[in-house]
Amino acid sequence: MEPRRREVVGLMAGCLALLLAMRSMVVAMIVAVGVGRPRHLPDRTFRLDFHTKRANLRAMIYSSDTTCFNQIRMYRATFDKLCHMLDTIGGLRATRHMLVDEQVAMFLHILAHHVKNRVIQFEFGRSGETISRYFKLVLNATIRLQSLLLKKPEAILEDSNDHRWKWFKGCLGALDGTHIRVQVLAAHKGRYRNRKGDITTNVLGVCSPDGQFIFVFPEWEGSAADGRVLRDATTRPHGLRVPLGNYYLVDAGYSNCQGFLAPYRGQRYHLNDWRQGHQPQTAHECFNMRHSAARNVIERCFGILKLRWAILRSPSFYPVRLQNRYIVACCLLHNLIRREGVQDPLDEQLESFDIEPATDENMPIVPLETTDVWTNYREQIANEMFADFVAQR
Ligand SMILES: *[C@@H]1O[C@H](CO)[C@@H](O)[C@H](O)[C@H]1NC(C)=O
């Protein structure tokens, strides 16, 4: 090669090296920008994506636990766990357009604030069609976590010393119905109108003594009596099963029968009745007082559920079939959050929130079979309680 040619080639190689060096510097700078994040959160949630939408998501979810809780009603660690579960078990996939965490955040934000699709379009910079498609995808993935997130019932043991539950050996928890408002066609309103005149569905919820859902059954219209919903739930395949020797606490809207322990009718019952220092005078009153204190867990469960997810507090924009599915999803998320065991700000808020009053006794009862054995069983518990109460006095 002649000298002049060699010089040119050398110069070109030099330029190329310089360019490569500059490129890696730029890459290093870009990476450095993405590094200002809390160390304890795993990388997955921060996969580098320099799209402006990611910045929005970062501000909403990852900047602090306070904003995260305000936006999606759970803390960052719980959110991250949820994304991980949906990804690995629920089969939710990142797409070219949206990573898993953004899909999940959008879904939770809709449940938490019941915002209209149009508002989400603005907040997340996505089209209406995209939002509703991803909403359904995340919903289905969440429901696939059902067997994992629903609480497995555990009976109260003989030697339990929980002051609320020790009276109820073998008890698995409490159940009740709650009404959730819906929008339906005028032609269907009759079936959905409950006794207070609201258009609702009647959702049966069963929870454990520690306030996690064991079973949720959202399929009935608001006009259905609680007892009827329960009867349907217990006779369906994959419905509610109560093993022999176990039972749930129910209110006076249900009949007292095998597997479901109800209070005595026509007696003092509600917690408020006992707050003014009134002391039980009979075994039945004593039973009702203790029953009410323990059964209250299901009222609290529903109360916190509705406090957390605004979509359950006002008539939904969604069709009933979809609504039934996201009611279940809300309960599953409730369990996940309770399970994390971190202090839940909603526990305190609940005190000032007006829990819907429990079913009154004038509800028509749809009898499941009442048996003498079961009636005597209740009598026996009541007598033991009262004997104990008198002895302690
Ligand atoms: C979600 O599940 C429902 C019921 O199983 C199904 O009809 C629907 O097509 C699913 N939607 C998506 C987006 O996968």
TrEMBL record:
Listed GO MF terms: hydrolase activity; metal ion binding; nuclease activity
Keywords on record: Hydrolase, Metal-binding, Nuclease, Nucleus
Protein's UniProt keywords contain Nucleus: yes
Cofactor: a divalent metal cation
Domain DUF8040: from-to ranges: 59-143
Database matches in InterPro entries: DUF8040 (IPR058353), HARBI1-like (IPR045249), HARBI1_dom (IPR027806)
Domain DDE Tnp4: 175-335
Places the protein is found: Nucleus
GO CC list: nucleus
Family: Belongs to the HARBI1 family.
The name this protein goes by in its record: DDE Tnp4 domain-containing protein
Organism of derivation: Acacia crassicarpa
Top-level taxonomy: Eukaryota, Viridiplantae, Streptophyta, Embryophyta, Tracheophyta
